[in-house]
User: Fold this.
Amino acid sequence: MNSITYQEAAAFLREHDRYLILTHKRPDGDTVGCAAGLCAGLRALGKQAHVCPGTGATHLFAPYLEGYLAPEGYVPDTVVSVDIAARGLFTQEGETWLERGVDLAIDHHPSQEFFAGVTCLDAGRGACGELIYDILAQLGPVTAAMAVPLYVAVSTDTGCFQYSNTTATTHRIAAALMETGIDTFALNKRHFRTKSWARLQVERLLVERMHRYEDGKIAVAPISLSLMDEAGATEEDMEDIAAFLGQIEGVETSITIREKAEGGCKLSVRTSGGLNATRVCALLGGGGHAAAAGCSVQGSLAQAEEAILAAVRQVEAAHG
Amino acid sequence: MNSITYQEAAAFLREHDRYLILTHKRPDGDTVGCAAGLCAGLRALGKQAHVCPGTGATHLFAPYLEGYLAPEGYVPDTVVSVDIAARGLFTQEGETWLERGVDLAIDHHPSQEFFAGVTCLDAGRGACGELIYDILAQLGPVTAAMAVPLYVAVSTDTGCFQYSNTTATTHRIAAALMETGIDTFALNKRHFRTKSWARLQVERLLVERMHRYEDGKIAVAPISLSLMDEAGATEEDMEDIAAFLGQIEGVETSITIREKAEGGCKLSVRTSGGLNATRVCALLGGGGHAAAAGCSVQGSLAQAEEAILAAVRQVEAAHG
Assistant:
């Protein structure tokens, strides 16, 4: 694990050329924003730089990669991964380059596997985009072309400065990005103040059909395939749906149960009141973090609900 | 209009004593947060300071004023208003002090009426709380007791850094406030990630019953008294409900129509697609800003909807 500082990462980027930048699979705003921002920054240095195609970015994030995707047959000298913590998180196209060898990994996940030649890791950053900003700022003036995707990276990974990973540094970097003259209002509207019609229908149906227990401290939303149909919803409309329940006043444990097309159910448990979500999900063979965990249950939505409620009660009884 | 800088305002506060701080009526997070933060800051200087009672703060903001409200019979030497733009915006209790004379007004509204002996106005600030922060920072270390209400002021007035009034300075001040060690995650959860059950019911019913026109570019939500009953909603649950429609993908003009208990309807028009909301509402005797305006219409919800749609079309026809 050859760790380097962000100043050393800047020196590395200045010394090399012909870059290919890799994003993680099921890409979010952070990995896409880091890739686009870094690519713009390298080009401003006069380097050749492209982002590896096949990112799988949704319509929400794909536009930030326009003009940056590598043309067919592009052969890089230097491969850089951004926001990729583990070997298992490379895209299909990226896996080829993982085999060839990643030269530099830039990341903020404590679970970083150190798969690269050198790794610039800062697990104290809310978003990997913060680290990319600090690296680019070492290399020259950060322009609006870099600042737009970096703002997307930083703001989306911190829930627009609302999540607990937000730090004073996050805000300071947001300030610096704003000073390049970018229209953060439009970016915020796009990423935080826009809901698809189908998403609104999903939320309406959840409110109509969710179950509440223990004076509303537990909220359970069974999400059947037919509910998805009724709402006209696709996977893109379901992002972070577990958080929708968690925002209800008085709810401490929110549980979404998704019916799977291939049978069985996938459950997501979020807690804010002290109950350990991992302990609950472990009883059903799952895992995760103390405040957010998941598991799968064979059987119907009703059976899954019964199983998870029993698990919640067992953990409550054991740990008070 | 005796304008002073924030450095001069700091000097003013150091020189005087026995403060009474006034908030504006229908108080929001900014005026309450400014009052609590300033009161804490003045007390840290060894001054006597209280906030004028009768603020009318809702359960969301009232807790920040705990321990700061003036006891009965308190006679101040120095009266300071925070975030109050105009004479008409004083609370009932505050009006007495307006008559006696306000010594210092601290504000960020361009519509400031300069009713005070001296006025510290910076209309470039997203929140008045930013200005209070800069003043307090001149007077000594900003503590967590000051930072909590100031963070509430700054974050709520800028829609948690999402509105167009957010600047680089807003973020820099948020960073400084975070560095006092306050739990902004809990504050963000309270103010931006919590919805009452009744509010969720209102939103569910709006999605179910709203009308969409012009391929979804116009969304109209009639809100009857019976809908409010059905949702179990009070006025507190209706805050910023117009924004709920405005977030729907593709919606450029969102219109909420509230049925009034005393008869007639109150309309709110929000636009993001270039249509001038003030022109629309002016046709029905109302007014406001280009992107947000309001008016009242006599008659039923259906009549009000017909009238406002006709007004929208008339403005569209005249201005393209």
Residues 301-319 of chain B form the longest helix (19 residues). The mean pLDDT of chain B is 96.
